[in-house]
Amino acid sequence: MSQIFRCGLLWNGEEFIPNAALVISHGKVLANTFESSEGETDLGPDSVILPGLINAHIHLDLSFARISPTDNFVLWIQKVLEHRMELSPKTTLEAIRMGIQESLHSGVTSLGDISPNGASWEVLEELGLKGTIYRECLGLTPERVESTLCQWEEWLIHHEPTKSIQAGISPHAPFTTSRKIFEFAAHCGLPVTTHLGETPEEVQFLSHRNGPIGELLLEKGIDPALCHFQSVGEVVQIIAKTHRLGLVHSNYGEIAHALGVGQFRVHCPGTHSYFSRKSHPFDHPKFCPEEWVLATDGRSSNADLNLWSQVKMVAKERPSIAPEALLRMVTVNPARMMGMGKQIGKLLPQMAADFVIGRFNRPVGKEELPTKKIFDEIEEFESVWVNGEAKKANS
Ligand SMILES: [Zn+2]
């Protein structure tokens, strides 16, 4: 049986269509059409349908973290470590659940979660969302490298991809993770994401093995010389061989400007302002929105997990970015980054019926489409749908 939703404006991931009907059958999109049919649900001429949002960089296990904003990155890392130590396995699962529910409330239907032990897979599955679980790998000492890779492989054996969820790998960052893990990730054939070029401290550490990050490693009894990278660019050279790649932050250092198919950089606006970052990657003369994904990062460096409010913030700050390009940063681009571009991110036939319904202040006219008003007028989505089923009901 099919369901038909008539709306004032549909953005299907490729074009805006006024007065369109979205036809759904068995959890998938069957068609985008103008024709009216008996039994269709008319959402009204002021309604808009967009593909469900995709938050490709989040740390769900940190959803209970409440750490005050700071510009001291190393101090922040220490607070995150302290917070993690306080979490029991049960509380971690509760944090993951809360993070997913908060995401869903803002219109997110797929997630890319960086998970220290992969625990978010089962919760995501139970709550019926889609995404990639990037199990985090880190370690500089040979023993730690060996054990983290063994644990990742063991976890992978028990997590075959489903219709909705797939496994990935996340080497944490070049100052915590050995070159061997990055090389392994680049060749394992799964989606890869890593924090890269986040702070000037990272750039300093990679070049000189000193500064606050060097001091932190020494304090933890780790020899900074175990890091074998000399620059951010050297890390890029290794992982640029992978096809489904997300380089998170990319604020500093030399990041390749010719990324390949399925390779993206990820900007987290909330985290950027949380740390009062000086260098903004969008200011770069070669900035191209098609190479970027917008995400929230974790609650440890963002006030909330509301991806839509992050997009609205960027729309306000960067009016030169076209509305379609901004929407692609939270739909089409993250889907491609995770290698799920044939399944999610657009509302075209055969793709998942994951979508959100929002409302303009007035009916959509025939003349000028209110594409720019999407970010001004839609505060939140009144309903969120996954596989054609309402996950967040009309409010
Ligand atoms: Zn992160």
Helices and strands in order, then pairings?
Elements: E1 2-11, E2 16-25, E3 28-33, E4 41-42, E5 47-51, E6 53-58, H1 73-86, H2 89-105, E7 108-115, H3 120-127, E8 130-137, H4 142-157, E9 165-171, H5 179-187, E10 192-196, H6 200-208, H7 211-219, H8 232-239, E11 245-249, E12 263-267, H9 269-274, E13 292-294, H10 307-317, H11 323-329, H12 332-337, E14 355-359, H13 373-377, E15 383-386, E16 389-392
Parallel strand pairs: 1-4, 1-5, 6-7, 7-8, 8-9, 10-11, 11-12, 12-13
Antiparallel strand pairs: 1-2, 2-3, 5-14, 14-15, 15-16
Helix pairs in contact: 2-3, 6-7
The structure holds zinc ion.
Zinc ion (ZN) is lined by residues 57, 59, 114, 195, 248, 297-298.
Record keyword descriptors for this entry.
16 strands, 395 residues, 24% strand, TIM Barrel, binds zinc ion, 2 domains, Urease, subunit C, domain 1, 4-stranded parallel β-sheet, alpha/beta, 13 helices
Q: How would you characterize the largest beta sheet?
A: 8 strands, mixed
CATH fold title of the largest domain: TIM Barrel
CATH superfamily of the largest domain: Metal-dependent hydrolases
Poorly predicted runs are none
* Radius of gyration, whole Å: 21 Å
What structural category arises from helix and sheet content? alpha/beta
> Could you tell me the number of beta strands?
16
